[in-house]
Amino acid sequence: MTLPSQKKCALASALSTALCLSQPTLADSKPIPMVDGHRAPNVVLLFADDLGYADTGFQNSSNDVVTPNLDKLAKAGAILTTGYVTAPVCGPSRAGMLSGRYQESFGYHDNTAPYVREEGIVQGLPLDIPTIGNRFQDIGYTTAMIGKYHDGDPKEYWPHNRGFDEFFGFNNGAANYFVGPINDKNAEEKPNSSIYHNDQLVPPFDDYLTDRFGNEAVSFIESHKDEPFFLYVPFNAIHGPLQALDEDIERFKHIKDPKRRLSVAMNYNMDKNVGNIINKLKEHELMEDTIIIFLSDNGGKPKGNASYNHPLRGQKNTLWDGGIRVPFTVAWEGKILAGQTIDDPVISLDILPTVLKAAGADTSDWDLDGVDIMPRLTGQSEKLDNRFLYWDRVIKAAIRDDEWKLVMPNITPRKTEIQLFKISEDISESNNLADKHPEQVERLMKEFKQWQAKNEPAKWGWNKKKFPHKTVFRGKQY
């Protein structure tokens, strides 16, 4: 289940890092963004991949995970126990968070696929929709994206063309954690799986990929510590392939299940790199000037990467909470109250308006679907307003408010299966109340259909009947 031990090449890594992201600071060449007479806050957005709801220590659910740095981060801020993403798979979840809009509003219902609705459709986050990187650039921030992107294959869709001054990473669903010489080979056969710095293919390197992403993030902070920055670090851990460093596997040799052992080892390494990023902020006394957010892109996939979603029902690619409810924490030293546990439903759409307003931007005319949750985080408000959250995956759908959740796990022309849960009291979605509360089913279904009617139909998918036109997918013509 693992590759042979890889020796790290510290000198090569240092030189490569210096060449990649250690750019001269821009502080002397442009105005420093200010808020109320003070330097605007940095924002560090840390994103895990396929991490289960129970896969961090601060969730107090799994005994085998070791995530001391994430636990410290959560203790220093707020744990959002009812934190959601907009989709149970990678691409649309990221598209929603990066745009601040439900991705269904622009037809992005699923990961990129072999079939499209109409000829000529290009799959990805539409170029006319600003990303969170664009928004930060517009108010004078320096921006970077380090890790996995996965929101459009053509180069014009890549991060360095979508609002990020620096891009270091790959643009596919998965990549090998031991890059080595395969980076050159992949560039010819699978360019979206290769590691790039902006347009340039990165030379082969010996670092474990999660370590390399962590090092690049630390280097970026070092180079831009004197100016407000937005740093987005979407790790590909703990998404497959399950590959971990030998020393990390050895640490967890007591875990009997070999797949779970690898998963926990990969998670531990990611946590270590989160710690390195936080330590670099501390070194330069930037904690009071930095909002730090951590969450996962969707729920875990127990049979795939041995992640845990306990106590939630379902997994990645389902719309029970196991597919869309994720570990989620936010910290800002001196601003966000430490040691909080907030049970109000929040969603990844809230990140963009929350951090951009904190940075001094006027978001009032941006057509966003999230809300600013900073007043709740800082104690200025006691509770978020009740609202509806929506999910539409063409063949399955869901909607929830503070109390109730309606799930349609199977939508067919002949019959739509309906499940209703008192989600505020039934976190495991174990008691279907649809027959007992038809009035709630009717209320939620009406609201869902009104929202759905405003969205654009799915532009691509995997069903030939629903999406009749073939396209090029993963380098292959269908």
From TrEMBL:
Recorded superkingdom: Bacteria
Ranges for domain Sulfatase N-terminal: 41-361
Name recorded for this polypeptide: Sulfatase-like hydrolase/transferase
Organism encoding this protein: Photobacterium rosenbergii
Family in the record: Belongs to the sulfatase family.
Pfam families: Sulfatase
Keyword terms of this UniProt record: Calcium, Hydrolase, Metal-binding, Signal
Cross-referenced InterPro entries: Alkaline_phosphatase_core_sf (IPR017850), Sulfatase (IPR050738), Sulfatase_CS (IPR024607), Sulfatase_N (IPR000917)
Signal peptide as annotated in the record: 1-27
